[in-house]
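User: Fold this, then the next.

Assistant: Folding the first:
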Amino acid sequence: MAGGQKGGQAYVGVGGWTYEPWRDNFYPKGLAQARELQYASEHLTAIEINGTYYGTQKRESWTKWAETVPEGFVFAVKASRFCTNRKVLAEGAESIGKFLNQGIAELGPKLGPVLWQFMPTKKFDPVDFAGFLKLLPQEQEGVALRHALEVRHDSFVCPEFVDLARDHGCAIVFADHESYPGIADLTASFVYARLQQSRSNEPTGYDADELSRWAAATRAWTGGKAPPGLPYVTEPPSPAAARDAFVFFISGAKERNPAAAQALIAQLS
């Protein structure tokens, strides 16, 4: 596990673990597909489960995933699109309940944040969004829940949204993306970053200088600080208690993302 500078933990990984091109440049040749999660969990410190966005998983699958990975490894879980891709978010209680009841609590201490991702066309409606956040529970079957909000429309770049997320203890996902808004404001007891600009012509996705900058940002996050040079909507808070930081290399040149994650883990070790 990558250690934080002042006690917070950095969890670094990729989205999913089943991707055919990784069998050429990440997984050893001939590795059985049934062993890919185990291998990934031994070389990364977190994985964002994306398949949950599209469909419900069996409870036995959650149990098996938890048993496969080592202690200290965590899964972030992307919430169902039926919860977030709707006209009125505050009317999604039934979908949220169905998503949370499928078995994610079987992960126990290996459950990281739940990622609530919104469509790029979804605009900020303060009343509706407040109603949605009130639907998000603090625990599921006795397991504490942490919620991260990934918004993709410029209307969310406003103090009212930042304050709303902070009031509910939800993290705003920081997206390193060429077209989605980047909101680096710290609003929760943890940080969630999705780095989405890896390049195929870089063996590690991001070059050495870029990875050094992300390592410095991660150390600041785990040390309770707001990294300089990132886009903030409101005035960054004074240094606070240590935070866990969840950093995922997602999209971009996906075939490079495991190498990018491993390079960042090495810098943080």
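Now the next one, as you asked:
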Amino acid sequence: MKKNRQARLEMTPLMDVMFLVLVFFIYCIFDMAVHRGLKVELPNAEGVHEKGERIVITVKADNTIQLNGLDLAKDEVIARVKELNAVKMKFPVLISGDRKASLGVGIELLSELKAAGVERTTFQVSGKR
């Protein structure tokens, strides 16, 4: 005598596919993360695209300095970045300077960061010529 078997829906392949879709969307979200900072007019030049976590120092048009959105003096910015490097959080430092900001402020920041042992420091540019 034949047993009448009912159809079964196997959930394991469906769960695998849903997990892969979830992972795909998580990676997409991380890749689409926008630079969180002030709107500044960046100088036109070609540059390398930095991905991942980074420390952003913004030099506004009136030459005031911000570290990841917080208004700080130049000495405080250098001290905080140096502290992060001391605890092995060696994120790249990105100096984002407004086109109208003084060049000297950016050069001084770069020089003092290099003197403090921060090697991965670069200027952010618009990427257009």
